[in-house]
Amino acid sequence: MDREALVGLLDRYETRHRDEGSTLDRIRALLAEREDAFQRTCFAPGHITSSAWIVSRESGAALFTHHRKLERWLQLGGHADGETDVLASALREAEEESGLTGFRALPLEGGPEILDVDVHEIPARKDEPAHEHHDIRFLLEVSDAQPIVRQERESKEVRWFMPAEVQGRFDEESILRMARKAADWGARFPVGPR
User: What percent of the chain has a predicted confidence (pLDDT) above 70?
Assistant: First the structure.
């Protein structure tokens, strides 16, 4: 996936989520104005990141990481590091952060689709100024029969949360929005054994 293909995915996403036009406009502006938009050193206003709402093929539980630096439970993902194929980047981050393999992007038919987008502020730290993450999010499924192997330097814990736990534990709109969208997709693209 190149930059042009990503813009096409963002345009298709907007047909399903017209109310998110201002966020999409910010992401498209970054892509149009900054050649280095996929590099973590692009700080004005920020850079592209990718992440995934990961569901268990068997139980429908969602996988979260307790981020060491941010001290919060989050979906798995991270910097594109120059990779313009944001789905490949999300898949790479999912494997690196969990140790799991065999991820599949949903929906299975018709090629990749974006589950959610978000632009959020990252506070200044050490030698990095405050900047934005323009996060492109995908829905992935994987078997939870595998052992999780977390990256200790990035995560305090990686674990599965059942849908009811997600609703009861998290109050961040970004997380709840992804949960709602994943549940909606689950009705059309059932998660489970095939």
Answer: 96
